[in-house]
Amino acid sequence: MALLTPSDSALPREAQGRGWRRRLLCAPSQREVLRACFERNPYPGIATREELTQAIDILEPRVQIWFQNERSRQLRQHRLESRPWPGKRGPQESRRKRTADTRPQIALLLQAFEQDRFPGITIREELARETGLQESWIQIWFQNRRVRHPGQGGRAPAHTGGLCNAAPGGCPPPPAPSSVAFTHIGAWGKGLPAPHMPCVPGALPQGAFTSQGSRAVALLQPSQAVQAAGISAPAPALGALCWVPWLLRKWDCPTLRLLGGLCTPTNARKTRTHRAVACWALARWDSLGPFQLSHRTKMCLRHPRPSGVAGGAGAPGRQGGVGTRRWGSSTSGARDPGVLRASSTDASHQAPSQRLQKPRH
DNA sequence: GAACTAACATAATCAAGCC
DNA sequence: GGCTTGATTATGTTAGTTC
Predict the structure, then answer these.
(1) Chain A residues 315-334, Cβ below 7 A from strand B
(2) What is the C-alpha separation between A332 and A347, in angstroms, rounded?
(3) What is the DSSP letter of A299?
(4) A356 and A216 in contact (C-beta within 8 Å)?
(5) Distance, angstroms, CA A184 to C1' B4?
(6) Strand B bases, protein C-beta under 7 A
(7) CA proximity to A119, closest of A259, A265, A108
């Protein structure tokens, strides 16, 4: 059943090794099967997806993407019509088995990651050939790698224009633990009092950074953050907020491991100490004013990304249809609201992506 | 040009498996 | 139990295709 009809359009970006995968055009019959399956279960496990792959001749990763997009559409539609989303029903289908030991191939991937953190389809397929791994696995590997090793690797995504994913050439080495002071991510605090750094090429000094990918989080240089917070301590040449999770791991610093009860992820044991991003615990910008000394040693976990905060592949300039959701209105029972989230409902929590416009290209 | 939608991005989380 | 890391989710943007 050869129903795949990729377009014949030119792929100049792919030719450069940075392009997107060629679009899959679902035939009506394929879509029908997918929709029928979606009706039965919008969250198919690997077994079902594999079955679909066999049935309609669409690769499993494409099936997975289709279900992601379809869920997104349906969820949006349900919200618009104020209908409850049925969510997961029936017994949970099993996940894909963890990919076996990939150590032999990792070196090659690391090398590729160093050169380019956002490989296009051509490069990913090339890596897949060389390693014998699936291209979709490589894509996931890069996703996870970018999140967990923000300071490593090469260029920012091509589509982010002037935004950088890290300073050119990656983040600078982290400062010594003794002098660390963390920046404040205004996006998740209330009433960010300080100016935003412009995110245009050349505007950010070495070591400054924007958030991952194109998610244009307003940020401060450490010195600015300290200044804004009224901290008199000398501002270290802190390179990047993106180091924080890394620091948490590497330094094993108890002062960075406080407030375990602040967020209550289901998997708290595994996430509590790692998924932290810098924000000064208890230091509510609006209510407490300048930091008090007692706050300096406290870190809190960042609450989950609020709905409406752009997490997407590109510029924040456009208002997506889903982007108007208020915080705390998650439709997913799986996502932990967290303590901070519960108090984060006012309009000052505007998504950073809505405040910081990325120059379009 | 607008609408639709596959592809891709993120953060957050779950969970397997190793130490 | 702590940690690493593969897999999955929700959500948002980009860009190709169709009308």
Answers:
(1) 334
(2) 22
(3) B
(4) yes
(5) 39
(6) 5-17
(7) A108
Under a CB-based contact definition with an 8 Å cutoff, are residues A251 and A228 in contact?
Answer: no
CA–CA separation, A37 vs A48, rounded Å?
Answer: 9
Residues of chain A short of pLDDT 50, as ranges, are 1-17, 157-361
Predicted confidence (pLDDT) per residue in A289-328, tens digit: 333 222 222 333 333 334 444 344 433 322 322 222 223 3
A228-CA/B8-C1' distance, Å: 36
Point out the residue nearest to C2 (C-alpha to C1').
A270
Q: In chain A, what's the furthest Cα-to-Cα distance?
A: 69
Please name each of the domains of chain A with its CATH number.
28-81 (1.10.10.60), 103-148 (1.10.10.60)
Any alpha helices (H) in chain A, and if so which ranges? 12-15, 28-40, 46-56, 60-80, 103-115, 121-131, 135-148, 222-229, 244-251, 268-271, 285-288, 339-342, 352-355
Distance of C1' in C4 from CA in A218, Å? 30
pLDDT of residue A90: 66
Strand B contacted by A303 CB (< 7 A): yes
A259-298 pLDDT per residue, tens:
222 222 223 333 333 333 333 332 322 332 333 222 222 3
Q: C-alpha distances in angstroms, A123 versus A6, A118, A164, A306?
A: 19, 9, 21, 33
